[in-house]
Design a protein that fits this description.
Helix content: 10-25%
Structural class: alpha+beta
Oligomer: single chain
């Protein structure tokens, strides 16, 4: 028995307009039995790097037959290509603009396709809403079992973003802010961090080709903006409400928060700001 088709949606569209709902309507018109899951529609507008990171944190937690529909597309209507990528862990439908960069090292690419076969597209499409007119129909047909090769020819090259900043020195690591979540927690490129039985941390760099690094959690200091925060804690509740805390988040990244507060707003932090860990 074939599993129920699943499509996840990841966009920067927000929820105040009908864009997301319209995409779902297009998908359901072709694939009425699909299970639609919203990863998020709150990606900062046009922020491809943030979307790539959020996709990286989520894809492993879905069944391997999932179709991941990603529409963060500042180049909509230009020469950038709409693509589908089949892997050993899901099928990805997205613009070829680097938004798949961070998952590609963690999957085996099996097939790629330029989405252009008119048999699987509407007779005409908008120049500004390919999420509705190109990506959603393609995702629906793939969820229905249409082979990816039917959508169009193979893609000669997948666009890749440069790695986020992660500079490792003997006693210092310099990274950057990758994401700010709904609670205002500041998630950085410094990871993956794993707690050891000794109470120290092992950094197995998620980006780049560095060797693992041992870090003393208790004597570490993290600088972000003008703030210096001492030690890395296991969770928010190890400090008093309203206090700043550095911890290892659920995806293994170094995270800066305020217990029951909004760290990004309090510290005046934005995406791509530098973060320094001294250990």
């Amino acid at each position: 028995m074939n599993p129920q088709p699943i499509i996840t949606l990841l966009t920067d569209f927000g929820l105040s307009d009908a864009y997301v709902g319209t995409m779902k309507g297009v998908i359901l018109s072709s694939c009425p039995h699909v299970h639609l899951i919203d990863l998020t529609h709150a990606i900062q507008p046009q922020n491809i790097r943030q979307a790539a990171y959020v996709l990286l944190t989520a894809f492993r937690h879905f069944p391997p037959h999932t179709v991941f529909l990603v529409v963060v597309d500042p180049g909509v209507g230009t020469e950038r290509a709409p693509i589908a990528v089949s892997t050993n862990y899901g099928i990805y439908v997205a613009p070829n603009n680097g938004v798949l960069s961070y998952i590609l090292p963690h999957v085996q690419v099996l097939h790629t396709a330029l989405i252009q076969n008119p048999d699987y597209l509407p007779p005409s499409s908008s120049h500004t809403f390919h999420g509705r007119d190109i990506f959603s129909p393609a995702a629906a047909h793939l969820a229905n079992g249409v082979p990816i090769s039917e959508l169009g020819p193979a893609v000669p090259e997948l666009v890749k973003l440069s790695d986020p900043q992660l500079d490792i020195h003997p006693n210092r690591i310099v990274g950057q802010v990758l994401h700010i979540d709904h609670f205002g927690n500041i998630i950085t490129s410094i990871g993956i961090l794993t707690w050891q039985s000794t109470g120290s941390l092992q950094l197995s760099p998620q980006f780049g080709s560095h060797e693992p690094v041992e870090i003393s959690a208790s004597t570490s200091r993290v600088r972000i903006g003008t703030e210096l925060i001492h030690s890395i804690r296991p969770t928010y509740g190890t400090v008093e409400p309203g206090s700043r805390v550095v911890l290892v988040g659920s995806s293994g990244q170094l995270e800066i928060g305020i217990n029951q507060g909004h760290a990004a707003r309090s510290l005046d932090v934005k995406l791509d700001d530098p973060v320094t860990l001294d250990f």
